[in-house]
Amino acid sequence: MNNILKNLIYDRNALPTRETIINSSLISRNYNFESYFLQTSKRKYFLKINKKKDDQCLVINRMYNDTQFSSLTKREIYYYDQKIILMEYFEAEKLEKQISNQHIFGEEIAKFHTKRKSQFGFQYDTYIGSLLQENKMSKSWKEFFLHQRFDYLFCKIKKDMSIYPELIDKILAVRGYIERNLDDPSESTLIHGDIWSGNTLIKTDGLIKIIDPALFYADNEYELAYIYLNGTFGRGFYDSYNHTHQICDDFWQFKLYIYQIIPLMQYALLDGPIYIKEIEKICNFLIKRENLKY
Q1: Are residues 101 and 77 in the same domain?
Q2: Buried b (16+ CB within 10 A) or exposed e, 62-90
Q3: Which residues are CB-neighbours of 156 under 8 A, at least 6 positions away?
Q4: 117 with 177, same domain?
Q5: Sign of torsion, CA 8 14 17 19?
Q6: For residue 1, which of 39, 32, 31, 28 has the smallest C-alpha distance?
Q7: How far apart are CA 265 and CA 243, in angstroms?
Q8: Which of these three, 72, 88, 104, is where a domain ends?
Q9: pLDDT tens digits for 171-181?
Q10: Angle at alpha carbon of residue 108, lines to 103 and 111, rounded to 5°
Q11: Neighbours of 183 (CB within 10 A)
């Protein structure tokens, strides 16, 4: 047993009285977090330890509280503070079973997308990985998308990374294209914000779960483009989703491409410049297709 880990739990009285730790094992190290499987005399837990001094554990707790309405995202939190968060542990089936049930994910995510609001953003800032997502509420999706996602991330990339002037011009040309063509949806939708294969699972009891939310109110099809970018599901997912929640006509020709730029910017800031090349590929495609000047 890792004594440091043990002390983190016992010093906080994070476990109920007389519940003792039997076993623990490291699951992953991602960005600011270490994640552990924890087994006690009573139950199994999932433990996240924040290695950085910020409010991310507090935000994770708030997001799970705000998604208790859906069985897809519902998760019990047993203890949290600024350093650790102790959560319900999910026994999961193999990835192959998740892929074969992608039509069920399509139905369930469409149902999750029924929580609506008149504005875009969220009541507090959230995180994707260790990267802060500013979520000031806006009446316009286009304004929110361009200013709080596109411009904000592009400025950080120019400041923190080395990109050549021609690519800057290409990205700005695509920004202008987005500003001219992106329409506001009739209403906003609460999206999970970080759906990829590592965050999707089917429990051994058959219940579908999606973990690690990065919530905000958005165009629901932003979520679909994010899923497409990560190759999380195939055609069966989109057919199933469309049956419950119709995908708009310009998604496959327009939104699919422009919405992928935002997570690629986030990945570049989190994981390195290899993702800049993917942004450039999308820009080159749109510039050629739309005959954009840069």
Answers
A1: no
A2: bbbebbeebebbebebebbeeebbbbbbb
A3: 265, 269
A4: yes
A5: negative
A6: 39
A7: 31
A8: 88
A9: 999 999 999 99
A10: 130
A11: 12
Tell me the sheet residues that pair with 127.
Answer: 132
- 3-class secondary-structure state, position 283: helix
Taking residues 136-157, what's their average pLDDT?
Answer: 98
Residues 57 and 117 reside in one and the same domain: no
Where on the phi/psi map is residue 206: left (φ > 0), alpha (ψ -120 to 50), or beta?
Answer: left
Which of 36, 158, 43 has its CA nearest to residue 85? 36
| 5 within 8 A of 19, measured Cβ to Cβ | no
Q: Which residue has the tokens 């699919």?
A: 256
Number of domains, the chain: 2
Q: Do both 123 and 156 map to the same domain?
A: yes
Q: In the chain, what are the helix, strand and coil shares in percent, each to the nearest 5? A: 45, 20, 35
Question: Chain-wide mean pLDDT for the chain?
Answer: 94
Of 80, 87, 89, whose CA–CA distance to 8 is shortest?
80
Q: Which amino acid is at 58?
A: L
Q: Are residues 83 and 141 in the same domain?
A: no
CA gap 176, 183 in Å, rounded = 13
Q: Which domain holds residue 200?
A: 95-290
Look at residues 61, 88, 115 and tell me which one is the last residue of a structural domain. Answer: 88
- The model's pLDDT over 67-98, given as tens digits with 9 standing for 90+, comes to 999 999 999 999 999 999 999 999 987 666 66
pTM for the structure as a whole: 0.95
